[in-house]
Amino acid sequence: MANAALATTGPRTGPSTGRLATVAIIILLVLVALPRIVDPYQTVLVTYGLAMAIAALGFNLLLGYTGLLSFGHSAYFGAGAYTVAFITRDLAVQSMELCILGGLIGACVVAALFGFVCVRHTRIFFGILTLALSQVLWSLAFKFFWVTGGTDGIRVAYAKLTLLGGMINFAGPGSYQRFVFAYYYYVLAVFAIAAVVMWVIVHSPFGKALQAIRDNEVRAGFVGIPVRRYRWIAFIISGTFTGIAGVLWVPLNGLTTPDILYWPFSGELVFMTVLGGFRNFTGPIVGAVLFNYLKTYAVASSEYWQLLLGVVLVALVLVLPSGVVGTFARLGRRFARRQ
Amino acid sequence: MTGTIFVIQLLNALFYAAVLFLIAAGLSLIYGVMRIVNLAHGSLYALGAYVTAWAVGGAVGAAVAGTLGQIGLFLLLPIGAIAVGVLGAVIEPTLLRPLYRRSEEYHLLITFGLLMIIEDMLKLIFGGTPLTASNIMDGLGSISVGALPYPTYNLLVIAIGVAAAVGLWWFVYRTKFGVILRAISQDRRMAAALGINVGRVYVQAFAIGCFITGLGGAIVVPAQAAVLGMGVEWLIVAFVVVVIGGLGSLEGALVGALIVGIAHVAGIQFFAEIELAVLYLIATVVLMVRPTGLFGRA
After folding, report:
1. Residue contact B112–A140, C-beta within 8 A
2. Cβ atoms within 10 A of the Cβ of A250, count?
3. Interface check A143 vs B, CB under 8 A
4. Interface predicted TM-score (ipTM) of this complex, two decimals
5. Domain ranges, residue A218
6. Distance (Å, rounded) from C-alpha A337 to C-alpha A320?
7. Which helix (H) or strand (E) covers residue A255, if one does?
8. CB distance B277–A143 less than 8 Å?
9. Which of A122, A225, B42, B238 lies 20 to 30 angstroms, CA to CA, from A131?
10. Minimal Cα–Cα distance from B145 to chain A, Å?
11. Do residue A143 and residue B247 have CB atoms under 8 angstroms apart?
């Protein structure tokens, strides 16, 4: 009974792929035009939001599609971010593409390692295990300060980075404005690629198999799906996406600290995914951008921003459990039926 | 001399284990009865610490003098625990009750929201400066272990930890309420069908779980200052304890707290850099080998 209910409320293909593609292209065009309309500060905010959206998309492959709630995704975000910090500091790498490649490998290795352990469990034990493992990384980053800088973190200067294999660099005057402008498009492009890749993954036979595992593990096993291996692969993909988000986030922030490995940061990832709605493909994207705005304005408006966010989260869970996108989708369907 | 240090470190380990046991026992009791993993648990512990520190160290502590005053302060010590217990009795029916029918993700989320709220409320009410109730610890003085002085208060904390363990065991295994708790934990529907008011027991169990945790905070604060962020930190260590011992098991919380207490003190002594990592790795290994912990049921 519970499984049947889950199945009907699971992520759906939507009205039609054609219409969806049209909407996606319109949104993409708006995003492309955005830096010419709004001021640089807003552009930076949206850049942050898009980077986090990649993380939330990856996270949701586990929560929404595989039915596993990870409370340790800060580990892969941090793995991506710290890999970039290490290779720019110690190997003097400047190319952002190499940074992405490095962060991708770093996050992928950590996710493969941790995932191998974590997928042996489901439900609450999975959550605690992911949390405990992410805290191993945190405590290492925290304590081995001669490698990681401890709480001071490692600086990653945007001015030293180059985009597109050295075609765009940020030396000379007015570089920050140029960086904001160029980096926005860079993140947007990576985001678009990531979203398409994730869309293909969740609509592939592999993605369908994951949803089958989520809805009924035993039956999925009976039809021949290697449950644990598929969960592991989903875990690796999920962690790698989150790692890429960490890579893109570092030059924006200019600094990587153990805070992004600490478990409340994993909680924020869960928060943004649920804010958007984890039963939809687009939910995490909307949630990440919204959360980023919410947090920025809460931090700016009050010293007690955490209190505000906590109240929002509690209200969300009690009143809008299907998230912003899920609620709008439901209202939209009800409206359509009445017509 | 080596022997003296060993004894002192052992006492430190027991002190740490006593506090940890109180937090982990509350966490386990709540999980055992209502199947909720309470992420706000560490913050409730911090609240207990803050309330006691504020009452004993600040407001009242400054006003009392003499032996009688000292005794009064001791009686005031559990005020943090009572405050947390009362808060628990409010939280359960208002915030948690609507969610029992929903999946575990929502339990984790709402308690994570609670964590954010409580952490900032602490900052709002008690401010950013650390609070202590060290006047109690100072009042008790110290005893000598070998050639070195050791605070008498730490021994009292260990005694409270032992008393709490015995008391909880008696409560859960030897009283009628304990039988009801265990019955609900085994089969909630059947217990309800037999005429047990499950809703009321849930409130009581949650409040008791909160009370024990608040007690942990209340007794730690004469020895260590209450600081912001302590809740988030201790929660994770309490998780390690219940994972090792088995979520939902009191014996597990006790054994887990002892293991973690000893590992913690040994870690600080011998391998300070990876002390935390070792704790998490112990938890990971236990989860891999025995998913339900040393004393957990499937």
Report:
1. no
2. 26
3. yes
4. 0.83
5. 2-266
6. 21
7. strand A255-256
8. yes
9. A225
10. 32
11. no
Q: What gap in Å lies between CA B64 and CA A323, rounded to an integer?
A: 53
| Strands (E) located in chain B | 142-145, 148-151
Interatomic CA distance for residues B119 and A296, integer angstroms:
19
**Which residues does chain A have within 8 Å of residue B37's beta carbon, measured at their own beta carbons?**
124, 127-128
Max Cα separation, chain A? 65
Instruction: Tell me how many domains chain A contains.
Output: 1
Q: Using CA coordinates, name the residue in chain B closest to A137.
A: B277
- Token pair 């999920």: residue: A238
- Identify which has the larger pLDDT, A74 or A301: A74
Stretch A297-310: mean pLDDT? 85
User: CA B111 to CA A296: how far, in whole Å?
Assistant: 23
From A143's Cα to the closest Cα of chain B, the distance in A is: 5
Asked if B239 is an interface residue toward chain A (Cβ–Cβ < 8 A), one would say: yes
- Which chain A residues touch B284 with a CB distance below 8 Å? 117, 129, 132-133, 136
Low-confidence ranges of chain B (pLDDT < 50): none
CB nearest B108 (choices: A71, A142, A316): A71
Q: What is the pLDDT of residues B156-203, one digit of tens each?
A: 889 999 999 999 999 988 999 899 988 888 888 898 888 888 889 999
A306 touching chain B per CB within 8 A: yes
The answer to whether A243 and A175 have CB atoms below 8 angstroms apart is no
Indicate the residue of A69, A117, A311 with minimum beta-carbon distance to B117: A311
**DSSP assignment, residue B131?**
B
Return the amino acid letter for A227: V
* Six token digits for residue A175: 């570089």
User: pTM for this structure?
Assistant: 0.85
Instruction: Determine, yes or no, domain membership for A115.
Output: yes
pLDDT, tens digit (0-9, with 9 covering 90-100), for B47-75: 999 998 888 876 665 566 666 667 777 77
CA dist A145 and A108 (Å) reads: 24
